[in-house]
Design a protein that fits this description.
Keywords: Membrane, Transmembrane, Transmembrane helix
Low-confidence stretches: none
Number of helices: 4
Order of helices and strands: HHHH
Mean pLDDT: 87
Radius of gyration: 17 Å
Protein name: Membrane protein
Length: 134
């Protein structure tokens, strides 16, 4: 039983790290989008940031699967992570096509959803630790 709890704890920590990385990458993208409007260096930073964000979205899917299957967690984060990867794919396509009327609002939506998912994961972690102390 202790081994399962340790595995669950590790996979949940991995999920927290993955969603945190994704949220930070999205924050970086908002900053580089502003730099893109005022500097020639903005494009390179925004391009690199988009690759990091896409990789972070894939990492989030992997972390959600590992939290569910070997970790014994709920399968719902897999749905969230997969949906987010789909949104990231649309975001990349709209950015490459320079469709700013979709790219900008979708980026704002993605940041909001990522913060919401991060808060949900962190609050679930906090409620679990409070439940184990009593």
């Amino acid at each position: 039983m202790a081994a399962r709890t340790t595995t669950g704890h590790r996979s949940h920590t991995f999920l927290q790290a993955a969603i945190s990385l994704q949220t930070l990458a999205l924050l970086f993208q908002t900053v580089t989008a502003g730099i893109l409007l005022s500097s020639s260096h903005g494009y390179a930073l925004h391009d690199v940031g988009s690759r990091v964000l896409y990789a972070a979205s894939m990492l989030y899917v992997i972390a959600a699967i590992l939290t569910w299957r070997p970790g014994g967690g709920p399968p719902r984060p897999i749905l969230y992570a997969t949906g987010f990867l789909v949104l990231a794919s649309v975001q990349v396509a709209s950015g490459v096509a320079h469709v700013t009327s979709l790219h900008v609002p979708l980026g704002i939506l993605m940041f909001g959803l990522s913060v919401l998912a991060l808060v949900q994961v962190l609050s679930a972690r906090r409620s679990q630790s409070v439940g184990t102390r009593s």
